Amino acid sequence: xxxxxxMSVPTFLREWEEAVLRDFNHPSIVGWCPFNExxxxxxxxxxxxxxxxxxxxxxxxDETRPCIDTSGNYHVITDIFDLHDYNQNPEVxxxxxxxxxxxxxxxxxxxxxxxxxxxxxxxYGGIYWNDSDENAGWGYGNAPxxxxxxxxxxxxxxxxxxxxxxxxxxxxxxxYDIEQEQNGLYTYDRRPKFDPEIIKKINERTAAIEK
Length: 211
Known about the structure:
Layout: H1 8-23, E1 35-36, H2 48-61, E2 70-71, E3 81-85, H3 90-96, E4 119-125, H4 147-162, E5 167-173, H5 196-204
Parallel strand pairs: 1-2, 3-4, 4-5
Helix pairs in contact: 1-2, 3-4, 4-5
């Protein structure tokens, strides 16, 4: 959908209402997110009213779940302030959010405003790994040369978020490979690339926000 086109409002909103009604009682849905990465289109900025109307409609239809207006950018009205960050250096990723919430998102201050919402990195990592062909597909940054290097980077990036007292959660990108995106923890046909117990151990430790 072109979020910079006013004609998108009636079309998208009708379809979104149908989706919420269809999936309202599904037990795996913990929140709603109608848009993803609403960057500018052909030099045109997103229509903020589209995001606000969709958010408010969602909250009227379901008062029990949080709603993120658009995942990544640019937030207009949201219950959770989420970001996408694919920096591959754990120290740099850590530094990005070292001053939360006082100086968060200065780069986008002219497009979105942080109002004290819980913070959430909903896309990070995306580390390339392909067992069969190192030249197939792609991932973010330079591909690790060994499995040990992959795990070390995965742990470093995850620790950077777990150690941040302002971070309510994170979502690694991605669980499994999708077509040319060879950056999953599982292959396209859902076979684990790495020992799931290693990933589980990294993820399950107590986060700073829990202490």
